[in-house]
Amino acid sequence: MDYTLPTIHINGNSRESLANGYSNAYRKLIEFRNAFNEIDHNARNYYPQGPGAWTRACDQRDVQRQRITDLMTYLEAHLIELGE
Predict the structure, then answer these.
(1) Predicted TM-score of the model (pTM)
(2) Which of 22, 34, 37, 53 could form a disulfide linkage to 49, CB 3.0–4.6 angstroms apart?
(3) Percentage of the residues of the chain whose pLDDT score is greater than 70
(4) Which residues of 61-75 are buried (b: 16+ CB within 10 A; e: fewer)?
């Protein structure tokens, strides 16, 4: 994806300030991703809802995993641009 990345200039934030912010967010997102992946996701919690509930739950979980990955990619692009 083509992101609009910040330009470091005299009237903006310093490279260090931006890098620290993006780096902090990235580290916390990794912690969140790990916590999300540790949730016990099991079919036995869905079968009372009928056929297809487990498949829907898995599909929805996959969408959320992809969103986390997309956000990580966004943050990584900024960090690379900032020389981190």
Answers:
(1) 0.90
(2) 53
(3) 100
(4) eeeeeeeeeeeeebb
> Encoding tokens for residue 23?
């780096």
79: exposed, middle or buried (Cβ count in 10 Å: 0-12, 13-18, 19+): middle
Neighbours of 84 (CB within 10 A): 15
Residue 56 region, left (φ>0) first, then alpha (ψ -120 to 50), else beta? alpha
Rounded to the nearest 10°, the torsion over CA 28, 34, 39, 43 is 130
- Our CA dihedral for 33, 2, 24, 35, rounded to 10 degrees, sits at 0
| Residue written as token pair 């966004």 | 74
Contacts of 36 (CB under 8 A, 6+ apart): 64, 65, 68
pLDDT at 1: 77
